[in-house]
Amino acid sequence: MPKVLTVHPGSLAEELQIEPGDDIVAINGQPIRDVIDLQFALAGEDISLDIRKSNGDEWVVEVDKDYDESLGVDWEHPTVDKVRLCHNKCVFCFVDQVPKNMRKTLNMRDDDYRLSFLHGNFVTLTNLREGELERIAALRMSPLNISVHATNPVLREQMLGNKKSGEILEQIAYLSSHDIEMNTQVVLCPEWNDGAELDRTIEELSQFYPAVRTLSIVPVGLTKHRRGLAQLRNCSAEEARQIAQQVAKWQNILRPKLGVNFVHAADEFYCIGDSEIPTAMYYDEFAQIENGVGLLRTFLDEFTSLQKKLPRKLQKHRHVAIVTGTSAQKVITSTAEQLNRIDGLTVDVYPIVNEFYGDQVTVTGLITGQDIIAQLRDRLKADVLLIPDVMLKDDADIFLDDYRVEQVRDELNIEILVVPPSASGIVYGALGKTHALPVRQRYEATLTAAVGAAASN
Questions:
Q1: Own/partner pairs for 392-399, CB < 8 Å, 24+ apart?
Q2: Domain CATH code at residue 397
Q3: Which segments constitute the DUF512 domain (predicted)?
Q4: pLDDT band at 316 (very low <50, low <70, confident <90, very high)
Q5: pLDDT digits (tens, 9 = 90+) for 277-289
Q6: Same domain, 269 and 314
Q7: Host domain of residue 401
Q8: pTM for the complete prediction?
Q9: What is the dihedral of CA 281, 286, 287, 291, to 10 degrees?
Q10: Number of domains the chain contains
Q11: CA spacing 20 to 30 A to 412: which of 75, 206, 329, 374?
Protein backbone atom coordinates (compact mmCIF):
# COMPACT_ATOMS: atom_id res chain seq x y z
CA MET A 1 0.00 0.00 0.00
CA PRO A 2 1.18 3.59 -0.64
CA LYS A 3 3.27 5.04 2.20
CA VAL A 4 3.73 8.80 2.35
CA LEU A 5 7.35 9.99 2.36
CA THR A 6 6.88 13.78 2.28
CA VAL A 7 3.94 16.20 2.20
CA HIS A 8 4.22 19.34 0.06
CA PRO A 9 3.56 22.63 1.87
CA GLY A 10 0.18 24.13 1.01
CA SER A 11 -1.01 20.91 -0.63
CA LEU A 12 -4.33 19.11 -0.35
CA ALA A 13 -2.59 16.43 1.73
CA GLU A 14 -1.41 19.03 4.25
CA GLU A 15 -4.94 20.40 4.48
CA LEU A 16 -6.17 16.85 5.20
CA GLN A 17 -3.50 16.43 7.90
CA ILE A 18 -1.84 13.57 6.05
CA GLU A 19 1.69 13.09 7.42
CA PRO A 20 4.90 11.27 6.45
CA GLY A 21 4.62 7.63 7.44
CA ASP A 22 0.87 7.43 6.78
CA ASP A 23 -0.45 4.62 4.54
CA ILE A 24 -3.23 5.10 1.98
CA VAL A 25 -5.02 1.78 2.43
CA ALA A 26 -7.78 2.28 -0.14
CA ILE A 27 -9.48 4.90 -2.30
CA ASN A 28 -13.23 4.67 -2.81
CA GLY A 29 -13.05 1.29 -1.12
CA GLN A 30 -10.57 -0.12 -3.64
CA PRO A 31 -7.16 -1.34 -2.41
CA ILE A 32 -4.20 0.37 -4.06
CA ARG A 33 -1.66 -2.00 -5.65
CA ASP A 34 0.67 0.52 -7.24
CA VAL A 35 1.06 4.02 -8.61
CA ILE A 36 -1.13 3.28 -11.64
CA ASP A 37 -4.10 2.36 -9.42
CA LEU A 38 -3.32 5.44 -7.38
CA GLN A 39 -3.23 7.80 -10.37
CA PHE A 40 -6.55 6.56 -11.72
CA ALA A 41 -8.21 6.57 -8.28
CA LEU A 42 -7.12 10.15 -7.53
CA ALA A 43 -8.30 11.49 -10.87
CA GLY A 44 -11.90 12.02 -9.72
CA GLU A 45 -13.45 14.97 -7.89
CA ASP A 46 -15.22 13.21 -4.99
CA ILE A 47 -13.10 10.51 -3.35
CA SER A 48 -12.92 8.67 -0.07
CA LEU A 49 -9.50 7.92 1.46
CA ASP A 50 -8.92 5.09 3.91
CA ILE A 51 -5.79 6.14 5.80
CA ARG A 52 -3.74 4.25 8.36
CA LYS A 53 -1.87 6.83 10.39
CA SER A 54 1.73 6.22 11.43
CA ASN A 55 0.52 5.75 15.03
CA GLY A 56 -1.92 3.00 13.95
CA ASP A 57 -5.12 5.09 13.94
CA GLU A 58 -7.57 4.40 11.09
CA TRP A 59 -9.07 7.42 9.31
CA VAL A 60 -11.70 7.73 6.58
CA VAL A 61 -11.50 11.11 4.85
CA GLU A 62 -14.03 12.40 2.30
CA VAL A 63 -12.41 14.70 -0.25
CA ASP A 64 -14.02 17.19 -2.64
CA LYS A 65 -11.31 18.34 -5.03
CA ASP A 66 -10.71 19.55 -8.55
CA TYR A 67 -10.49 16.94 -11.29
CA ASP A 68 -6.90 15.66 -11.54
CA GLU A 69 -5.84 17.85 -8.57
CA SER A 70 -2.72 16.35 -7.04
CA LEU A 71 -2.74 15.08 -3.47
CA GLY A 72 0.64 16.77 -3.02
CA VAL A 73 2.80 14.01 -1.57
CA ASP A 74 5.90 12.04 -2.45
CA TRP A 75 5.72 8.30 -1.95
CA GLU A 76 8.25 6.06 -0.29
CA HIS A 77 8.65 4.22 -3.62
CA PRO A 78 8.14 5.91 -7.03
CA THR A 79 5.81 3.09 -8.12
CA VAL A 80 4.17 2.94 -4.64
CA ASP A 81 4.92 -0.77 -4.24
CA LYS A 82 8.49 -1.33 -5.40
CA VAL A 83 10.26 -0.65 -8.67
CA ARG A 84 10.23 -3.68 -10.96
CA LEU A 85 13.83 -4.84 -11.41
CA CYS A 86 15.36 -6.02 -14.66
CA HIS A 87 16.39 -9.66 -15.07
CA ASN A 88 17.99 -9.19 -18.47
CA LYS A 89 21.72 -9.59 -18.98
CA CYS A 90 22.17 -7.07 -21.76
CA VAL A 91 25.63 -7.11 -23.32
CA PHE A 92 25.69 -3.29 -23.25
CA CYS A 93 24.06 -2.68 -19.84
CA PHE A 94 25.45 0.57 -18.43
CA VAL A 95 24.75 -0.47 -14.84
CA ASP A 96 27.29 -3.30 -15.24
CA GLN A 97 29.87 -0.65 -16.15
CA VAL A 98 29.73 1.64 -13.14
CA PRO A 99 32.08 1.42 -10.16
CA LYS A 100 30.71 -0.76 -7.37
CA ASN A 101 30.98 1.96 -4.74
CA MET A 102 28.44 4.25 -6.43
CA ARG A 103 25.23 5.21 -4.65
CA LYS A 104 22.59 2.49 -4.64
CA THR A 105 20.25 4.08 -7.18
CA LEU A 106 22.99 4.12 -9.85
CA ASN A 107 23.50 0.37 -9.47
CA MET A 108 19.81 -0.51 -9.70
CA ARG A 109 18.48 -2.14 -12.86
CA ASP A 110 14.87 -1.18 -13.44
CA ASP A 111 12.65 -2.35 -16.27
CA ASP A 112 9.29 -1.09 -15.06
CA TYR A 113 6.54 -0.35 -17.58
CA ARG A 114 4.90 1.96 -15.04
CA LEU A 115 7.98 4.21 -15.02
CA SER A 116 7.88 4.22 -18.80
CA PHE A 117 4.28 5.46 -18.76
CA LEU A 118 4.78 7.98 -15.96
CA HIS A 119 8.34 9.23 -16.48
CA GLY A 120 9.41 8.18 -19.98
CA ASN A 121 11.86 5.44 -18.98
CA PHE A 122 12.72 2.94 -21.71
CA VAL A 123 11.68 -0.66 -21.00
CA THR A 124 12.28 -3.92 -22.83
CA LEU A 125 8.91 -5.60 -22.04
CA THR A 126 10.81 -8.77 -21.14
CA ASN A 127 10.15 -8.42 -17.41
CA LEU A 128 6.36 -8.19 -17.55
CA ARG A 129 4.37 -10.40 -15.22
CA GLU A 130 1.39 -12.42 -16.38
CA GLY A 131 -1.48 -10.17 -17.40
CA GLU A 132 0.52 -6.93 -17.39
CA LEU A 133 0.54 -6.50 -21.16
CA GLU A 134 -3.24 -6.75 -21.02
CA ARG A 135 -3.30 -4.22 -18.17
CA ILE A 136 -1.31 -1.73 -20.27
CA ALA A 137 -3.88 -2.10 -23.04
CA ALA A 138 -6.92 -1.99 -20.76
CA LEU A 139 -5.77 1.16 -18.95
CA ARG A 140 -4.58 2.84 -22.17
CA MET A 141 -1.10 3.42 -20.72
CA SER A 142 0.17 5.42 -23.64
CA PRO A 143 2.73 6.39 -24.78
CA LEU A 144 5.33 3.82 -23.76
CA ASN A 145 9.05 4.00 -24.49
CA ILE A 146 10.40 0.63 -25.56
CA SER A 147 13.99 -0.54 -25.98
CA VAL A 148 13.93 -2.85 -29.00
CA HIS A 149 17.61 -3.00 -30.09
CA ALA A 150 16.82 -5.69 -32.69
CA THR A 151 13.65 -7.23 -34.11
CA ASN A 152 15.52 -10.41 -35.12
CA PRO A 153 14.37 -12.67 -32.24
CA VAL A 154 17.57 -14.73 -32.13
CA LEU A 155 19.78 -11.64 -32.07
CA ARG A 156 17.60 -9.89 -29.47
CA GLU A 157 17.82 -12.92 -27.18
CA GLN A 158 21.61 -12.84 -27.54
CA MET A 159 21.83 -9.12 -26.83
CA LEU A 160 19.40 -9.05 -23.90
CA GLY A 161 20.30 -12.44 -22.41
CA ASN A 162 16.62 -13.26 -21.86
CA LYS A 163 14.71 -16.06 -23.60
CA LYS A 164 11.51 -14.00 -23.52
CA SER A 165 13.05 -11.16 -25.47
CA GLY A 166 12.38 -12.74 -28.88
CA GLU A 167 8.65 -11.97 -28.49
CA ILE A 168 9.06 -8.23 -29.04
CA LEU A 169 7.26 -7.97 -32.39
CA GLU A 170 4.30 -9.95 -31.04
CA GLN A 171 4.16 -7.63 -28.02
CA ILE A 172 4.33 -4.52 -30.19
CA ALA A 173 1.64 -5.93 -32.49
CA TYR A 174 -0.64 -6.53 -29.49
CA LEU A 175 -0.12 -3.01 -28.12
CA SER A 176 -0.58 -1.53 -31.58
CA SER A 177 -3.90 -3.35 -32.00
CA HIS A 178 -5.04 -1.71 -28.74
CA ASP A 179 -4.04 1.80 -29.87
CA ILE A 180 -1.07 2.15 -27.52
CA GLU A 181 1.49 4.65 -28.85
CA MET A 182 5.14 3.65 -28.62
CA ASN A 183 8.50 5.36 -28.99
CA THR A 184 11.25 2.85 -29.65
CA GLN A 185 15.03 2.86 -29.54
CA VAL A 186 18.02 0.85 -30.72
CA VAL A 187 21.26 0.98 -28.75
CA LEU A 188 23.62 0.41 -31.64
CA CYS A 189 26.55 -1.92 -30.98
CA PRO A 190 28.99 -2.21 -33.91
CA GLU A 191 29.17 -5.74 -35.37
CA TRP A 192 26.05 -6.76 -33.41
CA ASN A 193 22.89 -4.95 -34.52
CA ASP A 194 24.21 -2.61 -37.22
CA GLY A 195 24.26 -2.99 -40.99
CA ALA A 196 21.66 -5.42 -42.37
CA GLU A 197 20.26 -6.06 -38.87
CA LEU A 198 19.59 -2.35 -38.42
CA ASP A 199 17.87 -2.27 -41.82
CA ARG A 200 15.65 -5.16 -40.71
CA THR A 201 14.78 -3.47 -37.41
CA ILE A 202 13.89 -0.15 -39.07
CA GLU A 203 11.79 -1.84 -41.74
CA GLU A 204 9.86 -4.09 -39.35
CA LEU A 205 9.15 -1.40 -36.77
CA SER A 206 8.06 1.12 -39.42
CA GLN A 207 5.26 -1.25 -40.39
CA PHE A 208 3.58 -0.46 -37.06
CA TYR A 209 3.44 3.31 -37.66
CA PRO A 210 1.58 5.33 -36.34
CA ALA A 211 1.30 3.15 -33.22
CA VAL A 212 5.10 2.99 -33.20
CA ARG A 213 5.55 6.68 -33.82
CA THR A 214 9.34 7.04 -33.57
CA LEU A 215 12.54 5.03 -33.63
CA SER A 216 15.81 6.49 -32.35
CA ILE A 217 19.25 5.01 -32.98
CA VAL A 218 21.65 5.80 -30.14
CA PRO A 219 25.30 4.74 -29.79
CA VAL A 220 26.32 2.24 -27.14
CA GLY A 221 27.91 3.78 -24.06
CA LEU A 222 31.06 2.03 -22.87
CA THR A 223 33.04 2.85 -19.72
CA LYS A 224 36.45 1.67 -18.60
CA HIS A 225 34.78 -0.56 -15.98
CA ARG A 226 33.97 -3.49 -18.31
CA ARG A 227 36.06 -6.30 -16.90
CA GLY A 228 34.50 -9.71 -17.58
CA LEU A 229 31.81 -8.32 -19.90
CA ALA A 230 31.06 -8.97 -23.57
CA GLN A 231 33.46 -7.62 -26.16
CA LEU A 232 32.01 -4.38 -27.45
CA ARG A 233 33.47 -1.28 -29.04
CA ASN A 234 32.36 2.22 -29.89
CA CYS A 235 31.60 3.45 -33.39
CA SER A 236 34.48 4.94 -35.32
CA ALA A 237 34.05 8.33 -36.97
CA GLU A 238 33.53 6.65 -40.34
CA GLU A 239 30.97 4.21 -38.91
CA ALA A 240 29.10 7.09 -37.27
CA ARG A 241 28.84 8.84 -40.63
CA GLN A 242 27.66 5.59 -42.27
CA ILE A 243 24.95 5.13 -39.65
CA ALA A 244 23.73 8.70 -40.17
CA GLN A 245 23.64 8.02 -43.92
CA GLN A 246 21.79 4.73 -43.37
CA VAL A 247 19.17 6.52 -41.30
CA ALA A 248 18.85 9.25 -43.94
CA LYS A 249 18.34 6.56 -46.60
CA TRP A 250 15.47 5.08 -44.62
CA GLN A 251 13.94 8.50 -44.08
CA ASN A 252 13.88 8.98 -47.84
CA ILE A 253 12.11 5.63 -48.19
CA LEU A 254 9.62 6.14 -45.37
CA ARG A 255 8.72 9.82 -45.71
CA PRO A 256 6.63 9.38 -48.88
CA LYS A 257 4.81 6.42 -47.28
CA LEU A 258 4.30 7.64 -43.73
CA GLY A 259 4.46 11.41 -44.04
CA VAL A 260 7.21 11.53 -41.37
CA ASN A 261 10.86 10.55 -41.19
CA PHE A 262 10.08 8.05 -38.39
CA VAL A 263 13.70 7.04 -37.63
CA HIS A 264 16.37 9.40 -36.31
CA ALA A 265 20.02 9.15 -35.34
CA ALA A 266 21.09 10.52 -31.96
CA ASP A 267 23.20 13.67 -31.79
CA GLU A 268 26.27 11.71 -30.72
CA PHE A 269 26.63 10.12 -34.16
CA TYR A 270 27.05 13.58 -35.69
CA CYS A 271 29.54 14.55 -32.99
CA ILE A 272 31.55 11.34 -33.39
CA GLY A 273 31.54 11.67 -37.18
CA ASP A 274 32.17 15.43 -37.06
CA SER A 275 29.15 15.82 -39.35
CA GLU A 276 26.77 18.71 -39.82
CA ILE A 277 23.79 18.64 -37.45
CA PRO A 278 20.57 18.09 -39.45
CA THR A 279 17.91 20.79 -39.69
CA ALA A 280 14.78 20.76 -37.52
CA MET A 281 12.78 19.10 -40.33
CA TYR A 282 14.86 15.97 -39.82
CA TYR A 283 13.49 15.39 -36.30
CA ASP A 284 9.76 15.52 -37.03
CA GLU A 285 8.31 16.70 -33.69
CA PHE A 286 11.43 16.06 -31.55
CA ALA A 287 9.58 13.25 -29.76
CA GLN A 288 12.80 11.75 -28.40
CA ILE A 289 14.72 14.88 -27.52
CA GLU A 290 15.24 13.63 -23.95
CA ASN A 291 16.96 10.60 -25.47
CA GLY A 292 19.61 12.84 -27.02
CA VAL A 293 17.90 13.09 -30.40
CA GLY A 294 17.73 16.68 -31.59
CA LEU A 295 19.12 18.46 -28.53
CA LEU A 296 21.93 20.08 -30.48
CA ARG A 297 19.61 21.25 -33.25
CA THR A 298 17.24 22.88 -30.75
CA PHE A 299 20.25 24.47 -29.05
CA LEU A 300 21.55 25.90 -32.32
CA ASP A 301 18.14 27.15 -33.46
CA GLU A 302 17.38 28.68 -30.08
CA PHE A 303 20.71 30.49 -30.02
CA THR A 304 20.14 31.81 -33.52
CA SER A 305 16.86 33.37 -32.39
CA LEU A 306 18.47 34.77 -29.24
CA GLN A 307 21.35 36.43 -31.07
CA LYS A 308 19.06 39.23 -32.23
CA LYS A 309 18.32 40.11 -28.59
CA LEU A 310 21.86 40.06 -27.24
CA PRO A 311 23.28 43.31 -25.88
CA ARG A 312 26.19 44.87 -27.73
CA LYS A 313 27.96 45.88 -24.55
CA LEU A 314 28.03 45.17 -20.81
CA GLN A 315 28.66 48.06 -18.45
CA LYS A 316 30.73 45.86 -16.16
CA HIS A 317 33.20 43.31 -17.52
CA ARG A 318 32.25 39.69 -16.91
CA HIS A 319 34.48 36.62 -17.38
CA VAL A 320 32.63 33.30 -17.57
CA ALA A 321 33.80 29.69 -17.93
CA ILE A 322 31.59 26.84 -19.17
CA VAL A 323 32.20 23.11 -18.62
CA THR A 324 30.88 20.59 -21.14
CA GLY A 325 31.39 17.03 -22.29
CA THR A 326 33.71 16.52 -25.24
CA SER A 327 30.87 15.52 -27.60
CA ALA A 328 29.20 18.95 -27.31
CA GLN A 329 32.50 20.85 -27.38
CA LYS A 330 32.17 22.07 -30.98
CA VAL A 331 28.67 23.50 -30.51
CA ILE A 332 29.40 25.13 -27.14
CA THR A 333 32.67 26.61 -28.42
CA SER A 334 30.88 28.10 -31.44
CA THR A 335 28.30 29.64 -29.10
CA ALA A 336 31.04 31.10 -26.89
CA GLU A 337 32.70 32.68 -29.92
CA GLN A 338 29.47 34.53 -30.68
CA LEU A 339 29.05 35.64 -27.05
CA ASN A 340 32.61 36.91 -27.00
CA ARG A 341 31.59 39.53 -29.57
CA ILE A 342 29.71 41.31 -26.78
CA ASP A 343 31.93 44.13 -25.51
CA GLY A 344 32.74 43.47 -21.86
CA LEU A 345 32.02 39.72 -21.92
CA THR A 346 34.61 36.93 -22.03
CA VAL A 347 33.44 33.31 -22.27
CA ASP A 348 35.87 30.36 -22.06
CA VAL A 349 34.89 26.74 -22.74
CA TYR A 350 36.45 23.82 -20.89
CA PRO A 351 35.63 20.38 -22.34
CA ILE A 352 36.04 17.82 -19.56
CA VAL A 353 37.59 14.45 -20.42
CA ASN A 354 35.70 11.78 -18.49
CA GLU A 355 38.38 10.10 -16.40
CA PHE A 356 35.82 8.71 -13.95
CA TYR A 357 33.99 6.51 -16.47
CA GLY A 358 36.66 6.54 -19.17
CA ASP A 359 37.43 8.87 -22.04
CA GLN A 360 35.06 6.99 -24.37
CA VAL A 361 32.17 8.48 -22.39
CA THR A 362 31.77 11.93 -23.92
CA VAL A 363 28.29 13.20 -22.98
CA THR A 364 27.89 16.19 -20.67
CA GLY A 365 25.43 14.47 -18.35
CA LEU A 366 27.99 11.93 -17.13
CA ILE A 367 30.69 14.42 -16.07
CA THR A 368 31.63 14.14 -12.38
CA GLY A 369 32.60 16.72 -9.81
CA GLN A 370 36.02 15.23 -9.21
CA ASP A 371 36.90 15.39 -12.93
CA ILE A 372 35.92 19.05 -13.06
CA ILE A 373 38.11 19.80 -10.05
CA ALA A 374 41.10 17.80 -11.27
CA GLN A 375 41.07 19.29 -14.77
CA LEU A 376 40.33 22.90 -13.87
CA ARG A 377 42.39 23.37 -10.74
CA ASP A 378 44.99 26.13 -11.30
CA ARG A 379 43.61 26.76 -14.83
CA LEU A 380 40.54 28.88 -14.25
CA LYS A 381 40.84 32.62 -14.60
CA ALA A 382 37.13 33.38 -14.83
CA ASP A 383 34.82 35.06 -12.32
CA VAL A 384 32.09 32.42 -12.54
CA LEU A 385 31.77 28.81 -13.71
CA LEU A 386 28.62 27.59 -15.51
CA ILE A 387 27.64 23.98 -14.85
CA PRO A 388 24.82 22.41 -16.93
CA ASP A 389 22.24 20.93 -14.58
CA VAL A 390 22.18 17.62 -16.50
CA MET A 391 25.36 16.78 -14.56
CA LEU A 392 23.40 16.82 -11.31
CA LYS A 393 20.85 14.64 -9.55
CA ASP A 394 17.29 15.74 -10.32
CA ASP A 395 16.38 16.77 -6.79
CA ALA A 396 19.76 17.92 -5.44
CA ASP A 397 22.96 19.66 -6.51
CA ILE A 398 24.96 16.42 -6.41
CA PHE A 399 27.12 14.97 -9.19
CA LEU A 400 27.18 11.27 -10.08
CA ASP A 401 30.24 10.74 -7.87
CA ASP A 402 28.39 12.36 -4.92
CA TYR A 403 30.49 15.51 -5.07
CA ARG A 404 28.37 18.55 -4.25
CA VAL A 405 28.35 21.79 -6.19
CA GLU A 406 29.61 23.49 -3.03
CA GLN A 407 32.67 21.21 -2.97
CA VAL A 408 33.54 22.10 -6.55
CA ARG A 409 33.04 25.78 -5.76
CA ASP A 410 35.29 25.63 -2.70
CA GLU A 411 38.00 23.52 -4.36
CA LEU A 412 38.21 25.83 -7.38
CA ASN A 413 37.52 29.00 -5.42
CA ILE A 414 35.02 30.26 -7.97
CA GLU A 415 31.38 31.26 -8.04
CA ILE A 416 29.19 28.60 -9.68
CA LEU A 417 25.92 28.98 -11.54
CA VAL A 418 23.91 25.89 -12.39
CA VAL A 419 22.12 26.39 -15.71
CA PRO A 420 20.00 24.37 -18.14
CA PRO A 421 21.97 22.81 -21.02
CA SER A 422 20.06 25.01 -23.46
CA ALA A 423 21.05 28.08 -25.43
CA SER A 424 18.99 30.32 -23.14
CA GLY A 425 20.59 28.67 -20.12
CA ILE A 426 24.08 29.45 -21.42
CA VAL A 427 23.10 33.02 -22.35
CA TYR A 428 21.46 33.64 -18.98
CA GLY A 429 24.56 32.34 -17.25
CA ALA A 430 26.92 34.33 -19.40
CA LEU A 431 24.96 37.51 -18.72
CA GLY A 432 24.80 36.74 -15.00
CA LYS A 433 21.07 36.55 -14.44
CA THR A 434 20.47 32.89 -13.49
CA HIS A 435 21.00 33.56 -9.79
CA ALA A 436 17.57 35.20 -9.67
CA LEU A 437 15.82 32.05 -10.88
CA PRO A 438 15.18 28.70 -9.12
CA VAL A 439 17.42 26.09 -10.75
CA ARG A 440 14.58 23.76 -11.77
CA GLN A 441 12.48 26.55 -13.25
CA ARG A 442 15.10 28.08 -15.53
CA TYR A 443 13.81 26.24 -18.58
CA GLU A 444 10.62 28.26 -18.38
CA ALA A 445 12.36 31.63 -18.03
CA THR A 446 12.42 34.09 -20.92
CA LEU A 447 15.49 35.90 -22.17
CA THR A 448 14.08 39.36 -22.72
CA ALA A 449 14.24 40.66 -19.15
CA ALA A 450 17.72 39.27 -18.57
CA VAL A 451 19.12 40.79 -21.76
CA GLY A 452 17.57 44.16 -21.05
CA ALA A 453 18.86 44.22 -17.51
CA ALA A 454 22.35 43.10 -18.54
CA ALA A 455 22.57 45.78 -21.21
CA SER A 456 21.67 48.51 -18.69
CA ASN A 457 24.06 47.38 -15.89
A1: 392/418, 397/439, 399/367, 399/368, 399/369, 399/370
A2: 3.40.50
A3: 218-419
A4: very high
A5: 999 999 999 999 9
A6: no
A7: 300-456
A8: 0.81
A9: 130
A10: 3
A11: 329
